[in-house]
Amino acid sequence: MDYISTRGSAPALDFAGATLAGLASDGGLYVPRTWPKFSQDEIAAMAGLPYAELAQKIMLPFVEGSLSAERLLELTRAAYGRFAHAAVTPLKQLDQQQWLLELFHGPTLAFKDVALQLLGLLFEEFLARSEQNLTIVGATSGDTGSAAIDAVAGRAKIDIFMLHPRGRVSDVQRRQMTTVLAPNVHNIAIEGSFDDAQAMVKRMFNDNGMTDRFAIGAVNSINWARLMAQVVYYFAAALQLGAPQRKVAFSVPTGNFGDVFAGYVAAQMGLPIERLIVATNVNDILHRALSTGDYSQGTVTPTAAPSMDIQVSSNFERLLFDVGGRDGKALAEQMAGFEATKAMQLTNAQREGAAALFSSARADADDMNRAIRWAFVECGETIDPHTAIGLHAARVAGIAADIPVVTLATAHPAKFTDAVEHATGIRPTLPTRVGDLFEREERLTALPGDYDAVADYVSAHATPRP
């Protein structure tokens, strides 16, 4: 299996190369040259497998040439052995049609752990085969940072620099990053929004002065290996609900489009998915793009669901490439136009291709609060604001009654105590394994929202190429 850029001009890489590179040299994102396919019989035979073994079977076609089947299984068992629930991503029923897929049983209480626990091991595996150190530069709207830091803290030959928008993540999210005091961990609080931080990261990947000195890698969902790992839980949930004989719909709270694009990949691999519902908050660029074709950047509005406070969804480029005929040159021109004007209209082919599987819904603060209260009062479940946005979208989607709808529960409610308490009157508590979080020492560096300041800081603290 090799990987090509969505913008068409970067060299193809194998899985190990794409994992260490993160962003392609032409500014595009890596995708597999072809989608591997499972037959219905092959999918049916996966029912009942332990999560780590299911993960190995789903991911094996993507890593061919870089990892053996035996080594991949060792890595999946190591990654998912750290989760607090034996099922790793347990499925919970709310009513006759609605289900929750709990993705927050990893060490940092968010769905990002499912991918990043494995990604940390993959980095270590591939770096051991080379002489280079890896300088990871990432941006976080909340959960990616803590999950990535937990995954690589203290690992040899890796330095991580994580940018977050100052004052725009929850206290729990911030402390899960800033209380990790390993010497290879650097937390940077910048003035501005997540989009500002993400733009700095992308600029660094295209800054020859930086990439010549440092081997820069990505942990954001621009890294293909992250999306690959997230494909697995779509299979896990659907198999429990009767796949491949029965179709399943999924509602996904999303800002950067990575989590829901993993569902698209699962469908391309043969999983019978009825619909992927893209759930946004008032930062609704994805809802506008999917419903009207208007992909235009607005101003980021801070909300009680900060991980979705995004107006530029990096992974949307992967979908546009795939449904638009995989024409890298045309997409490069389209994305250059967007980057210059902050506005873009989807082509007819892109709109029609997306509409075949995707629908979308937008939730404001009232919709979110009603969904939290409904889950709490009617179902006895406490959910976080992001999950609530997904649940709102699931309940208004109009999916046929005989098709189960699975909302991805992306974070533990105790990461967003104020919002949950406002809606339910109950303040959720952190699990005992992280219960002393507010007693730990914090360490971070505050920088202005200025690329040169961030690049100078990275240059002063990272390990150069040999």
From TrEMBL:
InterPro entries, A to Z: Ser/Thr_deHydtase_PyrdxlP-BS, Thr_synth_N, Thr_synth_N_sf, Thr_synthase-like, Threonine_Synthase, TrpB-like_PALP, TrpB-like_PALP_sf
Full protein name: Threonine synthase
Gene Ontology BP annotations: threonine biosynthetic process
Catalysis performed (reactions): O-phospho-L-homoserine + H2O = L-threonine + phosphate
Family listed: Belongs to the threonine synthase family.
Cited PANTHER family: THREONINE SYNTHASE FAMILY MEMBER, THREONINE SYNTHASE-LIKE 2
Ranges where the Threonine synthase N-terminal domain occurs: 3-80
Keywords: Amino-acid biosynthesis, Lyase, Pyridoxal phosphate, Threonine biosynthesis
Cofactor: pyridoxal 5'-phosphate
EC numbers, comma separated: 4.2.3.1
N6-(pyridoxal phosphate)lysine sites (modified residues): 112
Species, as recorded: Novosphingobium flavum
Pathway: Amino-acid biosynthesis; L-threonine biosynthesis; L-threonine from L-aspartate: step 5/5
Recorded GO MF terms: pyridoxal phosphate binding; threonine synthase activity
Positions of the Tryptophan synthase beta chain-like PALP domain: 88-361
